[in-house]
Design goal:
The protein is an alpha/beta fold and 412 residues long. The chain contains twelve helices and 16 strands. It folds into two domains: 48-167 and 297-377, Response regulator (Rossmann fold, 3-Layer(aba) Sandwich); 170-292 and 394-401, Response regulator (Rossmann fold), CATH 3.40.50.2300. It has helices at residues 3-45, 61-78, 101-113, 126-139, 169-180, 195-210, 229-238, 254-259, 276-279, 302-314, 324-341, 347-354, and strands at 48-54, 84-85, 88-96, 119-121, 142-145, 162-164, 186-192, 214-221, 242-245, 268-273, 289-292, 358-361, 364-368, 375-376, 379-385, 394-401. Residues 35-46 have a biased composition (Basic and acidic residues).
């Protein structure tokens, strides 16, 4: 073979090899893209899993029950009954924290590791919730806090994965202070001795003092106590104009406050109107002015109407209670966030979608404030009154306190 022909053959071989290599590379790239698409389609068809932490036993069992009922109804409402969003089915797994922080951590870890949930929701106790917050950050999962209210959750202990549909202690405080605080008024406070109570009193004190009132005594009781005699006596001895009470749980102090004739000693009582079970013990407080987080006939909107109707239909004519709309709001927030991301449950994508997000709830419009992810929301200034046919004092609306009016300080 001549040198020219040999040279020509070599060039042809070289070109052939380059084309072959290019084709192989193209095939491999195509295969990789196809595999990636298949994986994405598989991922997007997998169910969205939500782990719900609630007190199904312990001192806040009633609150856990209300939240869970509201959460399930909220998922149904937000998905139009399909229980799916963007083609992905929604599953939720409930774990009982037993109202014990160490148990809450165990159950949350189980949900994150074994069940591989995309979201956490909860819990009934501020103590339980504070114990779980670091896990949301560690596992990079969104946690929607409901109904725990301690300011520190979206304050000193905040991390970017935390969003709260529950109101916080400062929002309660603004509403409570608006009802009674003004120049020259002397106020004593009474609360359980844990984060919920102490945060609540600190926030109330700040709000009341801005309005000119003086906090002359702070009294804290064992959260598990049933005898508050010595606590109430210390309040009486301080001789305030008002006693502002921050309380949660079945072991409420209302009967002992009545037995010790606090109001007959010239001390007016003010507090948040609690759940229906606690309202039945508040007969001595008829005429009291305070605030409410929720009572079934205070909000006037279509979602609340739906909630009241469906709740009565499904639960033996029972009315939704104090924390039922909160559970519903948490569910609606999650569904609306997933809609905004097109079914993507990546935490960073969700955070971007949820910061500043507004959504409609049984309490009207809520908005996650970008700075601390606290949901701004309405509360209600109320007066306890007797109502014919109702066996307990009823919170009657004085005025609705707007989300802007009850916006708490940013503390993170």
């Amino acid at each position: 073979m001549s040198s020219v022909r040999k040279h020509f053959a070599f060039i042809c071989l070289l070109v052939f090899m380059m084309v072959f290599a290019s084709a192989c590379s193209s095939d491999q790239t195509g295969s990789s893209d196809s595999g990636s698409k298949d994986k994405e389609e598989t991922k997007n068809s997998e169910p969205i899993k939500i782990g719900v932490l609630a007190s199904q036993t312990g001192g806040l069992e009633a609150y856990g029950k209300q939240t869970l009922r509201g959460f399930e109804l909220g998922l149904e409402y937000a998905t139009g009954g399909t229980m799916e969003v963007d083609g992905r089915k929604i599953q939720f797994i409930v774990e009982d924290t037993e109202t014990k922080p160490e148990v809450a951590v165990q159950k949350a870890t189980k949900l994150l590791e074994d069940d591989e949930v995309d979201f956490l929701v909860g819990s009934s106790s501020s103590g339980d919730t504070l114990a779980v917050l670091p896990l949301a950050e560690e596992y990079e999962k969104i946690m929607v806090v409901e109904p725990a209210v301690a300011d520190s959750i979206t304050g000193s202990e905040f991390n970017k994965y935390i969003f709260r549909t529950a109101r916080n202690s400062s929002q309660d405080a603004v509403a409570g202070a608006a009802a009674i605080a003004k120049d020259g008024v002397k106020i004593a406070t009474f609360a359980p001795d844990y984060s919920f109570g102490r945060d609540g009193v600190a926030a109330f004190k700040e709000a009341a003092e801005k309005l000119g009132a003086e906090i002359i005594h702070e009294e804290y009781a064992d959260p598990a106590a049933t005898d508050f005699t010595s606590n109430i006596q210390k309040v009486i001895d301080s001789k305030p104009d008002y006693l502002f009470v921050v309380w949660a749980g079945a072991n409420s102090p209302w009967n002992q406050i009545a037995d010790m004739k606090v109001q007959e000693k010239g001390i007016k009582i003010s507090t948040g109107a609690p759940d229906i079970a606690a309202l039945t013990t508040m007969e001595p407080l008829v005429g009291m002015e305070g605030f409410s987080v929720y009572y079934h006939d205070l909000p006037k909107n279509e979602i609340n109407d739906w909630l009241v109707t469906e709740h009565k239909k499904r639960f033996n004519n029972e009315l939704p209670d104090l924390f039922t709309p909160g559970g519903m709001s948490a569910a609606i927030a999650i569904v609306e966030a997933i809609k905004k991301t097109g079914g993507d449950t990546n935490a960073d994508t969700l955070i971007e979608a949820m910061e500043g997000m507004s959504f409609e709830t049984p309490k009207g419009k809520m908005t996650f404030r970008p700075e601390d992810h606290q949901a701004l929301q309405s509360l209600y200034a109320v007066r306890l009154e007797k109502k014919e046919g109702v066996p307990y004092p009823v919170p009657v609306l004085i005025r609705e306190l707007s989300p802007e009016e009850t916006a708490p300080p940013i503390r993170n």
